[in-house]
Design goal:
The complex is a heterotetramer. By secondary structure, chain A is mainly α. Helices cover 74% and strands 4% of the residues of chain A. Chain B has one domain. The radius of gyration of chain B is 21 Å and the shape is globular. The two termini of chain B are 34 Å apart. The chains are: A mainly alpha, B mainly alpha, C alpha/beta, D alpha/beta.
Chain lengths: 305, 338, 383, 254
Amino acid sequence: MNAALELFIQQLINGLTLGMVYALIALGYTMVYGVIQLINFAHGEVFMVGAYLALTAIWILAALAGPLPFWVSFAALLVFSMAGSALLGATIEKVAYKPLRNSPRLTALITSIGVSFFLQNAVMLIYRSKEQSVPEIIPHVQVSLGRISFSLIQGVIFLTSIGLMIFLTWFVKNTKLGKAMRALAEDPEAACLMGISVDRVIRVTFILGSALASVAGVLFALYYGSVNFHDGYLAGLKAFTAAVFGGIGSIPGAMLGGVLLGVFEGLGAGYISSQWKDVFAFLLLVAVLISKPSGLLGENIPEKV
Amino acid sequence: MERISLKKSNLFKVATVFLPLALIPLFDHNPYHLDLFTTVGIYALLAMGLNVVVGFAGLLNLGYAAFFAIGAYTYALLSLHWHCPFWLGLPIAGLVSMFFGFLIGMPSIRVRGDYLAITTLGFGEIVRIAFNNLDAWTGGPNGLLGIARPKLWVPSFEGGLHFETWSFSVNPAPYGYLVLGLVAGTACLLLRLSDSKFGRALVAIREDELAASCMGIPTLKVKLYAFGVSSFIAGIAGCVFAAKQTIITPDSFDFVLSVLILAMVVLGGLGNLWGAVLGAAVLGTLPELLREFADYRMLVFGLIMILMMIFRPQGILGGQLIQRELDVRHKESADGAS
Amino acid sequence: MRTFKPRSLVIFFVLLLGAWTNGFAKDETVYIGLAAPLTGDQAYIGIGLLQGAQMAVEDANIKGPVFGLSGIKLLALDDQHNPTQAVLAANRLISDPRVAGIVGHFNSSCTKAASAIYHEARIAQITPASTNPEISRQGFDTFFRMCATDDVQGPTAAHFVYDRLKIRKIAVIDDKTTYGKGLADEFEKKFKALGGTVVSHDGITQGEKDFAPLLTKIRSLEPELLYYGGVYPELSLLIKQSRKLGLHAPWMGGDGIFDVTLIKLATPELSEGTFSTMLGVDPRSFPRARDFVARYEARFGEIGSFSAYAYDTVNLLIEAIRRAGTSDREAVLREVRNTRDFQGVLGTVNFDEKGDAVNQSVGIYKVENGKFVFLEEAKPEVR
Amino acid sequence: MALLEVKGVSKHFGGVSALSRVSLCVEEREIVGLIGPNGAGKTSFFNCLTGLLKVDEGKILLGRDQRVLSGMSSDRILEAGIARTFQNLRIFRNMTLLENVAIGFHARTRSGLWDAFVRSPRARKEEKMIFDQSRELLRFMGLESFGNEIAANLPYGHQKRLEIARALASSPRLLCLDEPVAGMNPSEKEALAGVIRKIREKNIAVLLIEHDMKVVMPLSDRLVVLDEGEVIAEGRPQDIKNNPRVIQAYLGEG
């Protein structure tokens, strides 16, 4: 394979890996926005907390159990981090958002910004702000074909993201709770009249969204090998861009939006210039929003007259 | 109270609020307090400007720091390359920022609700990164240095009337007066705007854009005007900021600043001009008041924003619109639930 | 207007009044103002600086009062590495009459923004770590600098790569900050002047994590060495990701990456062979510094890369205050200016007319099995 | 010459054709009733007429100079002289009644943004005129005592009247009322019918969508019957009452 093609494929893989992480966070955004139309700025922070929980789990594992096969410790990480983040998500919803259920959307948005500030600095104070290194749980095994390399951790990221997306699509379509979430997204008053406990469904949405974000956090920590309390900000912003780009409210949309944004950024950085990388991402977002506001897969809800 | 009488009192209200503030620089020469006073003044300008778009028209602009930056960089470049005096640079910075306000406003206002927030957020980031990367003009991350301070022509009478130039220096007192004047002037103009048919049109758009359009309001044009006025004010604030700091770097105009100004508008009371000013005062001084617990500052700042929204959503002063909206909602939920 | 519940407003005014009148009790102690990033993502550097400064003040108080009965105290303020906050902090420091001198700021953009204020207030300002050369070109007689400037550190590194390592083809990356970009530009300018070729010069955003696309592009250009202007968190990621992508050219950076955490983050195996220039000499390898490092680490744990610098800067200022015999700012300023051969833990310090440190030596280090090993000291050629 | 001429207007959403070749005209000072079973396309016709829906085929002409309205934006159509109310009541809930009505004057006043800032004499004069005439209109609709009340706090019947007052504020040549008396008790309906007659005396033509035959029959000079997007009958109320196609349309295939 000639060098140019190898380069392109490698850039594609780089973009896809990044895109998958964005997609996982975007799934959380889309679900929360779909159900209660709230731009949850704190979601990026929940992702960051997930990464830190994974780091804590690794320390605990190292202290308690001796060396374990990698997939056992990986599973333990996931469970620990998802549980922690789910609990955090539920607490945020109960403390900060539930009292604002029927106040104007802007006040809920300000609260989410407050929560994001709070979490960021809380983690900094607990874990001290130094960049923390994350020991490598998933062994660094690499498959390479010519100059193209594809590591095990990238494979794990792909599998986990696609798997979770399929699970979520199934969950929303066939389970009672999933249907209730979709009903709430369509018409909250009607859903309420049909006996759906709005608060419970919203709480579950937050729990699910936070758990997904924590999975992204775990994979992010393992892939890059270091965490910083500031990670949530930029990743959260990009993930939200992906969610809107794919069509906010639509689960496959979040996946597609995340992947495309990752690839677009990867190629942009690789071929044009990495310092303008973020500008490409935002220009893409603005272009989509203006030409097709409902995003690629979102449904356009015309205003009833 | 009768509608007509209220209008005459705009000038009166502005005077009663801002005149006593003019006394502060006279009694308190502590440069730190005056610098804080000026910084809060600049925040007040920004909060009032953003209030036009967010408070009146309900258009959520999350990229407001970009216009603040455009104003600052415009004056910096004017002053560095063409030695343009501050008093000429001020309106030009406002106009350039207004131009970009229209440019960015044009596509954004066609977009609905939350998407407008994201479009403006995107533009805000693009402008900041552009300033950081275009090293040739903006000095990139090093920013622009040595921006001229405002000068005044002070008439002096020894040996016949002639004017010497007296330049602002590091002492923040003159900036305090400059900012106070701008804030008072802007407050007066915005109060007049909100009493005019444009103020009402903006509020109608916020209430029900479709009905407003059927009632003869050219909604896109009016929203664009709101964007224009709002970014003009940010341009002015940016120009003053550049003249005070004499050095500007892109990292002073990031997303956190846009969010901070938005929080001021909402905390003070949406759609309420005085709320915006008070929000600026509260959130401007809070980080300084909390300076003692240095590490915990931003933590407490976030906590206050959360608690404020739960216990006082209509903001400290209670924006009329939000206040009415909340009363209506409580009444409805009371009827519904009973 | 609707009546609003006065309760929330009353609380706010009480707070405001508290700040307004926290009057300055008249006491003898002389204060040294310190400004650095104490919160936010660079808090770890700021706190390292603060702890170094605290030790200097404690040592001075043990030695005896500075003059008359007055002891020394530190007034540390946080500027969150943001120029607007830096100006606010600077104004606060000069507004306190007991502050005799300023040690600060850390980031070049903050030091630059605050330098005008200190100049106006005629108070001595000594920065332990801002390396951007433009600050001392403003012609402020109140500005002094303990560390080498980028226009010294950059070219020194370029000479080392070109002459000692005989490398001709390199790639340059910087983190688009005042420090990072300043250093990378100086390095590139000198390296090209020497006849070397720079295949690419790219910028990354601080706080970013994924550099795979950029590194893949650079890999295709096959540089023999990669120079990075910036701080160690990003470099640790760059090192790991470049090795994974099969890009094995060595990395080189400036004082911003000279931190043992870099090796911990990037893992010793991958960071093997990374070069770094460091301002002055490594505290560990300098006899006088060894006991300071021991005392510091006994008390605060791992030494920060700039703690020793803060320690020296504060000591220099304290000695100037002792010589001045008063806390009057103009007198202290005069004494700081005629500092001769100050014996700090990091070597002797003299200031030139612009306030920059004279013949600040630049040490060249290399990572060998998990540690920064001192290679040689490069005397910067007189510019 | 007809005040309003609608020629062969069609509108389809995907396969469904809401309106197919609808033609009708309204004369000066005439009250025309637009009736038909639910889903006949009455409100869609209103939305096409007032620019909320783009017309797929056909033209809408207004006045002697036959200005083409189809394709104009809804605010320009209002400026041309067609004002409307809505089937499900779209008043500005958090504004006072006076402010609601004042919005109607927006197109009729010339002062610009600059006038507002400078508070030019023109702006002051227009503001005074707006509020005087708004009070006048509120009195006309019997709401004068609620001037500074928040619109949301008003009972449903008053809100309906407010919407009409707001439409009248732009001194239209044609007023389109979308089920003005829906949800009202008989005495309120009777009172509103009286007001509509008085509106006609201010030589404003009225195009009226209404289901309540007891109201629309006596009120309308002429009736147009729509069914499944087509005009199936037109004429004076008494002819329409026993027109077989109309009865069949209402009673269903049977």
